[in-house]
Amino acid sequence: MVSLSGFLVLFMALDCCFAHAGNGEKQILNQISRSLLENGLARTPPMGWNSWNHFGCNIDEKIVRKTADALISTGFKNLGYEYVNIDDCWAEHKRNKDGRLVPKASTFPSGIKALADYVHSKGLKLGIYSDAGFRTCSGQQPGSLGYEKIDADTFAEWGVDYLKYDNCNTDRSRPELRYPKMRDALLGTGVQYFIHYVNGEEIILLPGEPKLEIAGGQHKTLTTVGLA
């Protein structure tokens, strides 16, 4: 059985941070909340599992399937944990001749569509990862910069419900210029997505600054939490 301790630590850590936030931090959180996309999703905090904190790049479809099974068998789904999210390193190093991202044959031989179907059969939702740059943060797979529409269409065809969109290896333009391109591409598919933006190190929100006009479902401004 896959251990769920990784994401429990993550949510407890975030709860601690928000509970003890000072006035400055609260202003930042309020600023972020005002820029969220109103599409009916994330009215309460989204809960689930993300592969990065424990597995990093050592992820495969067997782990994802076992995790979906574990969310059911442990009763976590009944508590609201519904997302099973694949992070970085799921795709081949290069796009195919049509410009599409390709799941790694060595780790995701069944493809993402089959994996999404399996996760959906459990009453859960599947998330995937990309980056608003030329390559992802690991450097191991192509980013979506310049390929927003084709990637959004691909994710929709696969049945993906959630996109974590990172901010590494960019053209150095500000995130609010790049993120809306993916947001609009996803909206153009007609599929309802939860979008999780990761600001990385290129943008720091400070009290009093103009609000971040990038309109997604969630923004990550903290360092990724891992297990000791």
From TrEMBL:
GO terms for biological process, alphabetical: carbohydrate metabolic process
Organism, scientific name: Picea sitchensis (Sitka spruce)
Catalytic activity: Hydrolysis of terminal, non-reducing alpha-D-galactose residues in alpha-D-galactosides, including galactose oligosaccharides, galactomannans and galactolipids
Residue stretches spanning the membrane: none
Name of protein: Alpha-galactosidase
Signal sequence segment: 1-19
Similarity field: Belongs to the glycosyl hydrolase 27 family.
Keyword presence, Disulfide bond: yes
PROSITE patterns associated with the record: ALPHA_GALACTOSIDASE (PS00512)
